[in-house]
Design a protein that fits this description.
Elements (H helix, E strand, L loop, with lengths): L5 H22 L3 H21 L5 H19 L6 H36 L6 H10 L17 H16 L9 H9 L12 H4 L10 H33 L8 H32 L17 H7 L2 H12 L8 H20 L3 H27 L3 H20 L3 H13 L13 H20 L2 H5 L2 H17 L11
Length: 488
């Protein structure tokens, strides 16, 4: 179940809010008693929400919760000797990363083994294709592992808690049910933003939702839902139609349309989900940090990553880049650290060479920018050119991210530059609604917000409720409702 579904918007969420606020009032008692009861209700609702992705995976998230809660006690300062604390940290890292790698990369590993050691009658070219695409021969007869929903997000959250406790940056949580709520709280469970425990620790025991906060939550949710349903879904239909065509027959105009539609789709899809998560958090009394800040207005690659998926960038900065030494040990070490971070960023997204190359290229570009090109971008007086250049680079790399294989990515990018010009072909893919969605995507990707206050864009309740109604109508009339980061 995703936030942009009718069952969530019309049944699950209203019932959750009714029970969440109704039962504590009926039960009575002081504010502390109401907070405790509210936490347990929200935990129960969150586990039900996660069960929609597979009841059997409740055991998995339960194991993650227990391991990291227990590891916190081993890592806490002034409780054990340093050797015990270090072993506790190592145990948590190995357990979390082990589960993550097993579920995300086991299929890819088996496919590689089959192509290398059990190729059957495949030619060398077919074996190479199988290795690059991650498609095995089936020779070992091992069933594919199904990726549990949200595992990349909640394992990172759990590990951040253990590391912060180890560094004495966060208080130890003695109540396992409160810790379970932190890990499984459904507004941010399956696709972030990745929440650090130290940022919401106090909110687990002290929070109060007034009418203004609740209204702001509704507005933010409606705004995010409209981004997802009205813009992302509409552009996704265009992008998918182009990507499913024979790539070798695409001309420059259509291939660029497919690339740009996907570029806007992934932004409005993921940022819309983050807006909904932040809005839901406000409805339940939690303040989650922002996850996007109009990344397509960036004037450098470094700025793009400060604006895109901020919670993931912050996680890698705090728990990989800085521990490796950050920028404190000279330019050579800094470049190496950047390379490692973005290599891991690519690997985090999935078991496919496309993600590996995507992260690798970003690492190289950031090093190149830090060594030389960043100075040119900074000195350029016409910043609009910077934004266009960065958008073209980001757009091209989204092609690699979107492609099923490296060969497909290469073929698509080649058509973007040497496919010939046939502008009339655009009319085979564009409708009136997709044109409107495309224009809105360009305007609300940062241009409008740069000239208006955030409150002016999101603050009118009537506008937000109108967007909600339109979004629900679109959901009723259509079945096309993918969510890109659901797979991660």
């Amino acid at each position: 179940m995703v936030f942009s579904s009718l069952i969530f918007c019309t049944i699950f969420l209203p019932l959750c809010l009714l029970v969440y606020y109704g039962l504590p009032r009926i039960a009575g008692g002081g504010i502390d008693r109401k907070i405790i009861l509210s936490n347990y209700i929200l935990l129960f609702e969150s586990l039900i929400f996660y069960a929609f992705g597979g009841v059997k995976y409740l055991l998995l998230i339960g194991v993650v919760i227990f391991i990291n809660w227990s590891a916190g006690f081993l890592c806490a300062p002034n409780r054990h000797r340093n050797i015990v604390r270090v072993l506790g940290l190592i145990f948590a890292v190995l357990a979390d990363m082990g589960m993550l790698f097993f579920f995300k990369y086991f299929n890819f590993f088996i496919a590689t083994i089959e192509n290398v050691f059990y190729p059957g009658k495949l030619t060398i070219a077919q074996r190479a294709t199988g290795i690059l695409s991650g498609v095995g021969t089936g020779a070992l007869g091992i069933s594919e592992i199904v990726l549990p929903v949200g595992i990349s997000f909640f394992t990172f959250q759990a590990l951040s808690y253990v590391i912060d406790v180890y560094k004495n940056d966060a208080e130890l949580q003695g109540n396992i049910l409160y810790f379970a709520l932190y890990i499984s709280c459904f507004p941010q469970l399956i696709a972030g933003p990745i929440v650090h425990y130290k940022d919401i620790a106090s909110q687990l025991s002290e929070r109060n939702v007034g009418s203004n906060e609740f209204a702001e939550g509704i507005k933010r949710f409606c705004f995010g839902l409209s981004k997802k349903v009205l813009i992302a879904n509409t552009l996704a239909a265009v992008a998918d139609q182009i990507w499913s065509s024979d790539i070798s027959q695409l001309d420059v105009t259509v291939s660029w349309l497919g690339a740009i539609c996907y570029t806007f789709q992934i932004y409005y899809d993921f940022s819309g989900y983050s807006d909904m998560a932040i809005g839901l958090g406000k409805m339940f009394g939690f303040d989650f940090k922002e996850n996007f800040n109009h990344p397509y207005r960036a004037e450098s690659i470094q700025e793009f990553w400060r604006r895109w998926h901020i919670s993931l960038s912050t996680w890698f900065r705090d728990y990989v880049y800085i521990p490796l030494g950050g920028s404190r040990h000279g330019m050579g070490r800094t470049c190496f650290n950047i390379f490692i971070v973005f290599l891991l960023t690519g690997i985090w997204h999935g078991a496919n060479w496309t993600f590996f190359i995507w992260g690798l290229v970003y690492g190289i570009l950031l090093i190149f920018e830090r060594l030389w090109f960043g100075k040119i971008l900074a000195k350029n007086p016409i910043k609009f050119f910077n934004r266009i250049l960065i958008f073209i680079i980001v757009n091209s790399l989204w092609v690699v991210f979107r492609a099923g294989t490296i060969m497909e990515a290469g073929a698509f990018i080649s058509r973007m530059f040497v496919g010939g010009l046939k502008p009339l072909n655009l009319f085979n893919y564009l409708s009136g609604m997709s044109v409107i969605a495309f224009i809105c995507a360009m305007l609300f990707g940062g241009f409008v917000q740069a000239h208006m206050s955030v409150k002016a864009v999101k603050g009118n309740m009537l506008v937000c409720l109108t967007l909600l109604l339109l979004s629900l109508l679109f959901l009723v009339n259509g079945t096309y409702n993918p969510f890109i980061y659901y797979q991660f």
